[in-house]
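Supplementary Methods S3. Complex input for the adenosine-5'-diphosphate-bound model.
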Amino acid sequence: MKGRSIRTRVTLWFSVSLIIVVLLSFISFMIVSRTVVEKTTLNILRDAVENNLDEVEFHDEIINDEMDQDSDYYMKYSDGWLEIDDDFLSSVNGVYCAVYDVSPGCPELIYGENPIADITKACEFSNRDLQKIVTDGVEYHIYDRKVRSEGLKNVWIRGVISDEQNAGDVHTIAEITIIILIAILIIAILGGNIIAGRMLNPISSITKAASKISRGNDLKERIDIGEGKDEVHELADSFNKMMERLEVAFADEQQFTSDVSHELRTPISVIMAQSEFALENSNKEDDYIDALETVKRQAGKMSKLVNDMLTFARLGRNSGVYEKIKMNLSEVVESISEDMALIEEKGIKLECEAEPDVFVNGNRELLSRLIVNLIGNAYKYGKDEGHIWVKVKVAEGKAYLTVEDDGIGIAEDEIPKISKRMYQVDSSRNDKGSGLGLYMVKEIAEFHGGRIMVESRLNHGSKFIFEISTF
Ligand code: ADP
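Predicted complex, serialized as structure tokens:
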């Protein structure tokens, strides 16, 4: 409905503007045509009279033979003869020319034609002047020339042309112009309407697809409006890309929910089994203690998972829970390393070497989790009697925290996957993890505008580098 109304509005606006432009062009064109035609008419009139000027001559005397031989017109005039050459054109290109004797009294037409001779008699003769007379609604232009030939004092040539002559031309021009302009107008309006329709059709496809998605929750829906590079195609393209991202994010979210449920199911089952066993079968204190320890361990696992999920939610929403301040990264790393060096696991030795006073803009709680996770993994995946090297360095305005171990390492093709949510290289390598540790590390690094880089060789060890701008 909306599309149609936009289409109608576009067409209407376009048509009205076009009609105004066409009308204005028509009026201007007609004014110009009229002026040009009138100018041409007056030139024709002037030329006709001027050309006839030399054809009228006076002779004192004339030989009879001469009169007989040629076809010129001779008439007695004053005390001589007036000769009008046969080249004198009385009617040419709509112009009527007549020779007048304008002796005192009244002008008398002595040769030629004048369709309004009676009326123009009253019109005074004026050399080289253009005059205009209107009679019976028709406009006439008059042009007079006095004949300058010795012996002739009052002989004039008067040319008359009717305006109907050029009105006819103007009419023809107007008719042709109107037909052409109306044809252009119809083609433009119809074309405009079709183009507007074509432009808006994809928008209604987009609307249909969007409402289909919102009704049916089908994130697989895409808009197909064919090939094109205009704005509407760009819109459809952006919409499709958005749907693609939503689909991936939604699938990811579903996968995560299912993974988390799965992770929670194991400790819950263990807790339930242990509780039931202790309640039904046992009456010894040691059994109760064992059962409670298992419950505590499993509850701890669940608590960690739930806490991690809460942190992700807060990081993802950028909720403002985690404030960043200027903090001494070296101090935090040294303090955590000192504490973790006390872990007596597999005889692994931890060494820490940090450039003093490396300041960054960070959240102490989150950065501590990042460090603990990286060192924790180095222990988890370290080999017996192995080593862990923790370092903090500064280079070109960036601080680098590296946690390196000589443990089991990671296969090359696994490296890009390890920081994915809940990804574990091989669950048999570790039964304590959930695959959320490195994902958390990556999220925390990104929250600080930093990044995590991994270098690792299977069976040789791994190196995790956290890069962050210095304060
Ligand atoms: P998990 O809970 O399984 O430790 P993480 O996200 O911390 O999950 O790690 C993902 C995977 O990356 C682990 O399953 C492990 O195989 C591998 N990994 C992480 N750190 C190391 C390391 N220092 N050495 C070898 N493998 C590691």
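The first helix runs from residue 2 to 53. The chain has nine helices and 16 strands.
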